[in-house]
Amino acid sequence: MNRLAGATSPYLLQHADNPVDWWPWSDAAFEEARRRDVPVLLSVGYSACHWCHVMARESFEDEELARYLNERFVAVKVDREERPDVDAVYMEAVQAATGQGGWPMTVFLTPGGQPFYFGTYFPPVPRHGMPSFRQVLEGVEAAWRDRRGEVADVASRITRDLASRAISGAGAQPPGEEEAGAALLGLTREFDARYGGFGGAPKFPPPMVLEFLLRHHARTGSQGALEMVEATCEAMARGGIYDQLGGGFARYSVDAEWTVPHFEKMLYDNAQLCRVYAHLWRATGSELGRRVALETADFLVRELGTSQGGFASALDADSEDAAGRHREGAYYVWTPAQLAEALGDEDAEAAAERYGVTVEGTFEEGASVLQLPDDAPPLDAGRADSLRARLLAARSTRPRPARDEKVVAAWNGLAVAALAEAGAYFERPDLVRAAERAARLIAEVHTDAHGRLVRTSRDGEAGANAGVLEDYGDVAEGYLALYAVTGSAEWWERAGSLLETVLTRFGGEEGALFDTADDAEALIRRPQDPTDGATPSGWNAAAAALLSYAAYTGSERHRTAAEQALGVLRPLAARAPRFLGWGLSAAEAALDGPREVAVVGPHDASATARLHRTALLTTAPGAVVAAGEPGDEAAVPLLADRPLLDGQPAAYVCRGFVCARPTTDTEELVQQLEPSVDGA
């Protein structure tokens, strides 16, 4: 029986025709394991995961191995992007047991869902000290058959350990000046002064950390914070991790120099990085920031946009090369001969110098990943643009990487925020419209009749999985950013509805938050995690959105919830700042107020537009902006009691229950929004 054929997940569909008798995550799968008295093999991955594809080809497509597996196990396949709750619970067990994690994740469970043996990728034959997958299966089956009591003891102990890790309370106050300074010091120690970024290989883009550093610089004037942002952003934009032809960032660099990426492109990375580069431009006027923000925004719309208005999850790392082999990076890399074929000898030489293409190559088989070395001979803008356009056109004839068509609510929320702001900053109304279309899809397809979010959709059809905390936090963030740009109160209202669900369904004692709602499917542990990974944790995403909503409304309930949630970060700020970037960004907003800006005037008045744009361009951390006509206070409380000033459009700036005098002058508005160096 092909139980995956009707799945909405492209990852599950990729495995639908395997000889392995896969089950989706379901009560029926575990009931089948109980009926047959066999363990469960849980295999977790995602569509753009390179090693997931490798293990599928090597093991799950092997007829003999599949027969053995089907006879002795119930095999369950999970898309981590559809079920982040399942992934989080068992990944925590994997990391606790092995000290590391990753995908594909391979976990063996009792029929009650308790884990007892763990791993990630297993090869088809013993290799590099790793057992083969067949050996693992035989060992687990033997233990289940002959040492059942030992297996039960291990499973019970692991489950008890996971349950004991629950965070019962947060804290009364978010990180303050001392914690922000300690986080900055910790990041300075881990900063790679030679190549930018933090830590060594593999090196991941750190958008949330960069956002914290930008906000810290804006609030305190710290030049060190800004220099780390500028160096990292330039190194990434010049490196192979950035697509020099089509825009957009790959998932990570396998080296410390940003030269050779792991070529998959994720929506969540590019949405966050688009916003960071736009904020770098906002802070410094950086032309590189402007260019990369716009190129990445265009990549999102062009390459990941769906016909329903949302954004697909990812592009694969692999595609066919000229010889018909399925290879990582084949779509993106170049040899000198390929340059000559596309451009002719003279222009190929210029392109090779510009993009760092050599005979030796920087990748496999003499191919090079395109970079933009800062010491390359200069080209006039017209010729540089021509070379790029011609290479992009030639590349477009190659077999394209597959696209994961799944639309994830949280990641689309991140894209809404990025595109709305980029469109406003750079006067690109088409990008704002793209943000509105995605927000409309979330509102109409991902929101059920009770106002609850659905995690995923595909081809305009909602999936079966309930939204988790990160969906609510990131979508609320996107809605609030879209409201700030458009002034359409619908998005502010929708954010408020989602945050009400956060407060009533996801909260625990003393401000703690859980990743799943209180009425969600019960797992062996209700997951919760205040640390940021590749995306903002649900905990921090919700806290940041609650803080912004409180600034719009004056709601003490929302403000208190945000501060208590952020309070858990206080003891962590000095120890793990690289994994708290979005939480620390929200803490910077709390330290600065955040500033509240109300712009009142006719929507079609140029003076209103100038004040509104000035407010949006403030670097004050987490500032909220409301724009409307007199009388709009019924929709958004921040606009209440804000009349025109002598009949002219006016801006009102408040912070911590204190308001500056209203102004009709953009220069005065800039001064009112300028954070003082001491943070006062």
Main sheet properties: 5 strands, mixed
CA-atom Rg in angstroms: 26 Å
Query: Helix amount, in percent?
Result: 40-55%
Q: Work out the count of structural domains.
A: 4
Strand order within the widest beta sheet = 1-3-2-4-5
Head-to-tail CA distance between termini: 66 Å
The outline comes out as globular
Number of helices: 24
Predict the CATH topology of the largest domain.
Glycosyltransferase
The total beta strand count reads 19
Beta-strand residue fraction:
5-15%
- Structural class of the secondary elements? alpha+beta
Low-confidence stretches: none
- Specify the CATH class of the largest domain: Mainly Alpha
CATH architecture of the largest domain: Alpha/alpha barrel
What is the averaged pLDDT score? Answer: 93
Structure, explained:
It is a single chain. The chain is α+β, with helices and mostly antiparallel strands and 680 residues long. It has four domains: 10-163, Glutaredoxin, CATH 3.40.30; 180-316 and 404-592, Alpha/alpha barrel (Glycosyltransferase), CATH 1.50.10; 332-397, no CATH class; 596-673, Glutaredoxin. β14 (456-458) and β15 (461-462) form a beta hairpin. α9 (207-220) runs parallel beside α22 (581-592) and α11 (267-284) runs parallel beside α16. The model has no long low-confidence stretch (mean pLDDT 93).
